[in-house]
Input
Amino acid sequence: MARASAPAPAPSVPLRPEAHGPAASVLRLQRDFGNQGVQRMLRAPALQRKCACGDSHGHAGGECAACRAGEENRAEQTAGHATRLHAPHFGREAAAGAVGFNSSPGKDLAPPAKAAAELADDVDEAKPDPKNGSATIKCNGSGDYEILYGSYENATCGTKGCVTKHESSHIADWKAKWPKGCKDQPKGYLPKGDPPDEVLMTAAEYVAFLKQSECKAHTVDLDCANALPKPAGCEQTVKDYIKLTSDQKKNWC
Amino acid sequence: MSKREAIRLASEFGRGRGRDTRRYEASAELAGGEWQVHFRPRGKDTKPEPGDFFTVYVDDASGKVRMAEGK
Output
């Protein structure tokens, strides 16, 4: 019986120094595992970023809560460098679209130079999370307008209903001006009087239109807030909501 | 605290909350022992969306800061 022939010697490898760097690493992986194998590895979840809070392109993975917590910490630290940080004070304000913390004379956390550097970093890194920002309206991608609640998403004690009335007032104004403004437009678009919107507006005309819409929306909102019941546990939340709505209304009416 | 200091603290807090405060112009008024610092988009050619503004409250005595988002 013929014996299997001895394995062929491994092909000789040129004796030259291996290249370094990311590109060389990918080339080595492609050589060892094949191009498709490398592509699969690059697409693997383990190599993708796990957190993209505030990202509007749908890359957000399953750890955004942790990411948001990180941003909260960074925000507190940033303000803390300037105002000397005490314990965070997230309470009733958070339920009414507001956040805050106590800052009072205390112990410095960082020398000024370091604080300045970290502030600069935060300006670039911290992006508004859609759940932390303003309430607004946008096209829903199906031809109509929709409400984005932002930080008012979890507003309590009936205040979210007033936010709904506020934003619905904007939608009524937008529909009156641009009845088909969301037709064939992607989710997130908002007509502002620029082509292809049917009614065109200069910036000054648009700002006047927005001011009138904001005044009307704040009036409806404030009327709603003043009529809210104040059961036990909701007095301060409703009071704070009335104050912030009243304060902001003054800027528009 | 001075109006300028209140705006500075409010701006830093806004930046910490992810706002690019360079996009906004701030106005401040002292009412009831706290500074109300209002931020509105700057630039006569801008077309802001509804709610694209915010208010930062700075307690004049304690320095306590809180932020109210726009609607």
Chain B has a mean pLDDT of 94. The interface with chain A takes residues 8-9, 12-13, 15-20, 36, 38, 40, 44-55, 57, 62-71 of chain B (CB under 8 Å).
